[in-house]
Structure formats: structure tokens, C-alpha cells
């Protein structure tokens, strides 16, 4: 099985399949989200890497996410516990990717990293094409 992978201008999203569960029609993925930037006129660079090492996602959820990427302004990907892993919001000016958004079911005392990445406007469409072109066996 190959990974679902998208890269663009220092941004990379990868969903690497680890296991398949036929009874629940779900796939365990290792998900990596990475951003590296270095503006031409600035000696400073930025980098960020976020990893979900083992998360289960139903195939119906992958299909729903793919449809949302193509059809509406905001697409969210959820695990089998219905937690949002990340959300992609698109506009004419930019694409916003929110990682690990705050959820009402999370403990207020739990450690939580939440990040919002501002990306090029074409990223949402590129992600939609990547998910659409992924060879599905389900």
C-alpha cells in the first residue's frame, strides 16, 4: 500500500497506511504534517513537524473528507473516536490547515498542541486532487 502524500512549497502531508481492518472497513495510518519555510529576504527559517504515529480512520471517513475538500470551504478529517485530526479551510487568498483543533471532549488539564498553518490558496485544491487520485481498494 502506498501513502497518501501531498507536497507544495515546503509543506508536506503524508498518511502512511500501517494496518487494515476489514470488519470495520478502517485503516490505521501514521500521519505526518510538516512545514519548512525560509523567506528569500530573511536569514531566519521556520519549521514544524506534527505526527500522529498510529491513528485509525474509517474508509467512509476518507471518502467524506475527499468530498468535502472538493465541494465545501472547510473539510475535517476525524479518527474512529470522532476526534478531529485536522481541518482544511480554503479561500481565494489562502488555505488554512488547523492541526489538532481544540475539542469539547478534551480535558482542560491535558497537554494539547494546536497549530494553524497559513498556506498557498492552491493547497486545498491540491489536497483534493491527491485524495481523489489515491488508488482505493475499498
UniProtKB/TrEMBL annotation:
Protein name: DUF695 domain-containing protein
Amino acid at each position: 500500500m502506498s501513502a497518501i502524500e501531498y507536497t507544495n512549497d515546503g509543506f508536506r502531508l503524508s498518511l502512511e497506511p500501517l494496518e487494515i481492518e476489514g470488519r470495520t472497513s478502517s485503516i490505521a495510518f501514521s500521519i505526518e504534517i510538516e512545514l519548512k519555510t525560509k523567506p528569500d529576504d530573511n536569514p531566519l527559517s521556520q519549521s514544524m513537524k506534527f505526527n500522529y504515529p498510529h491513528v485509525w480512520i474509517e474508509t467512509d471517513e476518507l471518502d467524506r473528507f475527499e468530498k468535502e475538500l472538493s465541494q465545501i470551504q472547510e473539510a475535517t478529517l476525524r479518527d474512529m473516536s470522532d476526534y478531529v485530526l485536522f481541518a482544511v479551510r480554503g479561500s481565494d487568498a489562502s488555505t488554512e490547515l488547523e492541526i489538532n483543533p481544540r475539542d469539547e471532549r478534551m480535558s482542560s488539564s491535558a497537554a494539547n498542541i494546536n497549530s494553524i498553518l497559513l498556506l498557498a490558496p492552491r493547497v486545498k485544491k491540491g489536497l483534493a486532487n491527491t485524495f481523489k487520485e489515491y488508488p482505493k481498494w475499498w
